[in-house]
What we know:
Radius of gyration: 22 Å
Number of domains: 1
Order of helices and strands: HHEEE
Shape: rod-shaped
Structural class: alpha+beta
Strand content: 25-35%
Distance between the termini: 78 Å
Strand order of the largest sheet: 1-2-3
Amino acid sequence: MGITSKDSSKVGCTIYLLIICVICYVAYMWGEAQWNYESMKKETTELLKFIITEKTPQVDKYKKILVDKAEQCNIDLYEEDIEITQNDNGSVFELYWETPVELPGYTYYLEHNLVVTRKRGY
């Protein structure tokens, strides 16, 4: 018995379904990483609004707070990946982290670089 057109149709359908599943999985993982990025951006902006009012910056304290906030947002962030710059005009937070998107046999790392700036008086 040979391969019928009915059998090849099943194989083609299975391949299309597998491709659609892989695309949906990648989209879900990217969406989750983007959601975590936006959550961290919100938390960082709120913290910066509070910090801008202080006269003497406590950089180490802020870094620990940001690491805790990142943990709440499901982000692996380390203190050495955080830069806090404060001058007379305002403050700048720079954060960097990578989110792994794991596929069978391959891991892709989404790079996130978050810069939040706040000027005094605004």
